[in-house]
Structures are given as C-alpha cells and as structure tokens.
C-alpha cells in the first residue's frame, strides 16, 4: 500500500503546491481522494495517467477539494481509446455538484464530439456518482473502503475513508477537528493522513493582514492543528502520520519545525514535505 500526497496546498494559491489531493495505491488500484487544483498534473507526475484511475473519492464539497474534478472527468474521456466510466464517491450533495459539472462541460463535450468521429461512436462522457454516508462500506477491486463521519462544521456532511487491502490500512480524514468518529476511522492504521494548520502562524498572518483577520480566525475552529493530528494518531495507535493541506504553506526548510510540533505528542513516524511525498506500508 502506497500513499502519495499529490497536492499539499490550501485555498491560498501557492506556486509550489497543488490543491488538496492524495493518491492511494493498493491491490492494483489507483484511488484519488479529493482533487484540488493541479491534481491531474500531480497524478501524472506520480505515474498515473487519468485513464488508469480507479475512482475519485471526495471527503467534502469545499471548492479547494474538488476544483480539478472536471479535468479528471474530461481527461479520462478524451484519453481513453474505449468508453470509460468515472466513478465518483462522496457525501450527500455530490450528485448535485456533478450535475452542475456535467452542465458546465456540455459545450466542450459537443465540441469534441463534432471534431472526433471515434468519440461520436461512443456514449460520450460517462460518470457514475455514489453518495455515501458514515457506516457505509464498499469495494474498489480488492480494496475495502469504510466511510466515517468527520467534523468540519458548518460544512456538512463530511466524511473520511479507511482503506484496507493486503493486510494494510490507511485512513484519509480530510478537513476535520478531532472527534470520536475520527479516532475510530484511524484505529490501528499503518498510515493516517490529516489536513492541518498551525494556529501560531495563522495568528501571525492575522497581524500582517488585518483586513483578513476575521476570516483567518474562522478557519481555526474547523481544522485540526498539527498537535491535534498528533494526538489523534496517538489515541488511535497509528504507525505513520502524514501531514498535508498546510495552512499556511510550509516554507522550504521549515518541515522539521512542523514535524517537531507533532512529535511532542506522537512517537510514531511523522511525514511532512512537498507535493509527491509518499509513504509505503
């Protein structure tokens, strides 16, 4: 089982970090969890071209976690020599988002059908949406997926995913504060991936950007801090904690400082780094 941080950025654009997205590879499957800006480029850099993607799983419907969904859908269609279905799993509301996406792509689909005879012989863009709720379980090939509730209120519903394959377990939580359901999702995982922020650095940003201070203050109460993630990892007895979705972005050479905040509360392995950082279990 391999987990790759495709995008470690946040809603704040960063020239060095794509938007939130993580690649889970196990039992011959290639599964993307969330697909922020630049996801398809990073996925390709990780060696997975769009037609070989098994499924897209969404933790929630904030724009920074879904902004590359249209690129995945379109790229899979136009790069596949045979008709192909894109399977999208996500919380209630995903069907509405994908319906809007299909409407947005309607003109582009017609342009390509008008131009390419081989595409005209097929069924066009094919997408299947599977809305999931906490407690649901399903399989993607030989990868078993369990859905857990997370807490990113006022955004709701939000979910995280637990992947089990070949005797290994990975938990990908998405945006959330600590909660009992998150602990259960991560219990005994070989790899736990958590989006994090640094309240001390966010406070510094508030001083530098007073006009944005109220909005910056708001983000503190619905994300895990680095220390929160470390404490979750300890309670759940995970082996490796991967940090991602850094707010604010980690600057070159600062990784050790972020990791040090986590190791005060967690004795396992802590991983933080640039896009395409990966861990195998």
Short characterization:
This protein is an alpha/beta fold. The chain has helices spanning 39-45, 69-79, 94-104, 106-115, 117-120, 180-186, 199-208, 213-218, 226-236, 255-263, and strands at 2-7, 21-26, 29-33, 55-57, 85-90, 126-131, 137-140, 143-149, 159-165, 168-172, 191-197, 224-225, 240-247, 269-271, 277-280. The strands form two sheets. Strands 7, 8, 9, 10, 11, 12, 13 and 14 form an eight-stranded mixed sheet that branches. It has a seven-stranded mixed sheet with strand order 6-5-4-3-2-1-15.
Describe this structure in words.
By secondary structure, this protein is α/β, with parallel strands linked by helices. It is 31% helix and 28% strand. The chain is built from ten helices and 15 strands. It has helices spanning 39-45, 69-79, 94-104, 106-115, 117-120, 180-186, 199-208, 213-218, 226-236, 255-263; strands at 2-7, 21-26, 29-33, 55-57, 85-90, 126-131, 137-140, 143-149, 159-165, 168-172, 191-197, 224-225, 240-247, 269-271, 277-280. Strands 7, 8, 9, 10, 11, 12, 13 and 14 form an eight-stranded mixed beta sheet that branches. It has a seven-stranded mixed beta sheet with strand order 6-5-4-3-2-1-15. Strand 3, helix 1 (39-45) and strand 4 (55-57) form a beta-alpha-beta unit. Helix 6 (180-186) crosses helix 9 (226-236) and helix 9 packs across helix 10 (255-263). The radius of gyration is 19 Å and the shape is globular. The termini are close together.
């Amino acid at each position: 089982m391999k987990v790759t941080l495709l995008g470690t950025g946040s809603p704040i654009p960063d020239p060095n970090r794509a938007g939130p997205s993580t690649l889970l590879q196990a039992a011959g499957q290639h599964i993307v969890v969330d697909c922020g800006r630049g996801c398809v480029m990073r996925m390709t850099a990780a060696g997975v071209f769009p037609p070989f993607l098994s499924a897209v799983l969404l933790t929630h419907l904030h724009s920074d976690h879904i902004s590359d969904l249209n690129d995945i859908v379109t790229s899979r269609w136009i790069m596949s020599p045979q008709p192909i279905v894109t399977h999208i799993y996500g919380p209630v509301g995903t069907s509405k988002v994908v319906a809007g996406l299909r409407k947005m792509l309607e003109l582009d689909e017609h342009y390509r059908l008008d131009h390419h005879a081989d595409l005209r012989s097929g069924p066009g863009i094919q997408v299947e949406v599977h809305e999931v709720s906490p407690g649901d379980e399903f399989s993607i090939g030989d990868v078993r997926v369990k859905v857990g509730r997370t807490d990113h209120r006022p955004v709701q519903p939000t979910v995280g995913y637990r992947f089990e394959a070949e005797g290994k377990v990975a938990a990908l939580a998405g945006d959330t504060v600590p909660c009992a359901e998150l602990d259960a999702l991560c219990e005994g995982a070989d790899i736990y991936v958590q989006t994090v922020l640094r309240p001390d650095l966010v406070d510094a940003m508030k001083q530098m950007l007073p006009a944005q201070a109220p909005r910056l203050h708001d983000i503190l109460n619905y994300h895990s801090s680095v220390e929160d993630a470390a404490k979750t990892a300890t309670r759940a007895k995970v082996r490796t904690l991967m940090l991602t979705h850094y707010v604010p972005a980690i600057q070159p050479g600062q990784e050790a400082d972020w990791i040090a905040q986590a190791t005060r509360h967690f004795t396992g392995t802590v991983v933080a780094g640039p896009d395409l950082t990966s861990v195998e279990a």
